[in-house]
Amino acid sequence: MPQEEQERKEPQSWPFQEARKLLARVPQAQASKGYILFETGYGPSGLPHLGTFGEVARTTFVRRAFETLSSCPTRLFAFSDDRDGLRKVPQNTPQQQRISAFLEFPLTQTPDPWECCDSFGHHNNNKLRSFLDSFGFQYEFKSATDCYLSGIYDAALLKVLFHHEEILEIMLPSLRAERAATYSPFFPISPKTGKILQVAIEHYDIPSGTIVFTDEDGTRVEVPVNGRTCKLQWKVDWATRWYVFGVDYEMSGKDLIPSFQLSSRICRALGGVPPEGFHYELFLDEESKKISKSKGNGLTMEEWIRYGPVESLSTYLFHSPKSAKRLFFDVIPRQVEEYLACLDRYAQEDEIRRQDNPVWHIHAGAPPSLKCDLSFGVLLNLASVCNTEDPTVLWGFIVRYRPEASPERMPFLAKLVGHAIAYYKDFVKPHKLYRTATETEKQALADLGKALSTLTASEAETIQAVVYEVGKAHGFSPLRTWFSTLYETLLGQKEGPRMGSFIALYGIAETMQLIETALKREKEETMTWHK
What we know:
The chain is α/β, with parallel strands linked by helices. The protein has 4 domains: 3-166 and 233-283, Rossmann fold (3-Layer(aba) Sandwich), CATH 3.40.50; 287-362, no CATH class; 376-431; 439-520, Arc Repressor Mutant, subunit A (Orthogonal Bundle). 48% of the residues lie in helices and 10% in strands. The chain has 25 helices and 12 strands. A hairpin with a 5-residue loop joins strand 6 and strand 7. It starts with a helix and ends in an 11-residue tail after the last helix. The model is unreliable at 524-531 (pLDDT under 50).
């Protein structure tokens, strides 16, 4: 069978490709656990950001694809490494001086700088859970602190002790000489201060299940390797978690590929089977720098959903996960449009192609049927031209264009109106500048006004054809320079909507008034665009 014909028999989107990798694990997983286990990891040293959300969303895409291919039950653990020591105080954290006194203490024993939770770790865990819950993710939260203190890890810690020499053989070649000289799979916890210590282990006593080290005050100490007195180094910790729970699938960033490989070898040394892995590219900020929880750069979840629906974020995360992505404000309008386009296309597709459409994955195979034929760009430009932050003003134009429309009948459109106004207020209005038209452009604008005045119909396609013809008649080449002229002189911005759709919504008479204003504008203005 030709490859093209084969591809029509099954979905080819990357979540389905990943799901097929998992099918071979089903017999073993069902025998040992009764389910396939997906996992995502979170380091609560800083507030959750969109990278965290993205990892859960993408893992969920694969989980849903797998459930389409297999009847084997699934579970998803959202795991927090809240037993880690505080290495540095994040820049976006209050009470910096106070919290800096707790460096090297476990995050769940560090005070909450916001003073609303039991600890810094608990605060950030709550933030993670609240926004995952608010968007309907199906997961089970797991805390490293709970796992260590409850004894779940104790048997595995003894196994790490038993295999410590093999683990050292795996790890030491990957370390600098200085670090290798003191490296151990174990971080002992000082019985006197409670700090997590990065010290050399002087003796491993396998029969007694203990380790010996020198405490901060110079005292030689022997402690049992259990979850109350020790913590594992993170690559060993990661491998041990896979071993204890039988994790079948976990994603991680491209920067963690070497760590994933080392942890996989350690997991095998313990007698476990490492999970299937998927390594996505990193998220970047406005300056194309890696997003960091501690620095607080890039977008937050709250910021994205102020300017666009969460479905637009999920669309952004679905596409090309192995390509680096900028997470900054200017990507949001384009992703809202992309989500609407995918939703519109879904209704025309067969079942296989639907399973390759992002909205199938975003909406668990049941995308909504939205009554919305207005693009986000048109709404954004309507807010801009009206110079308003009042939704009722926009709805006045919308109802004239679509008499049956209302916020109650079209709640998603109402949501888009709110997002458009917020984006206009924060990013368009402060940088809005109108360019004075050249004499040649004024002639074209005047002719456009005359052409519009003769129209008896206000359908978008009819108007668009008129706009095209005027631009061609005046020799704009390429024709996009004509549309740039319209955006810059009529709307005061560098980019804009499909003019036919915009004029149909805004109104022919109102657009003619914009043209009249542009023709009277005399002052030349230097245009500086918001990037």
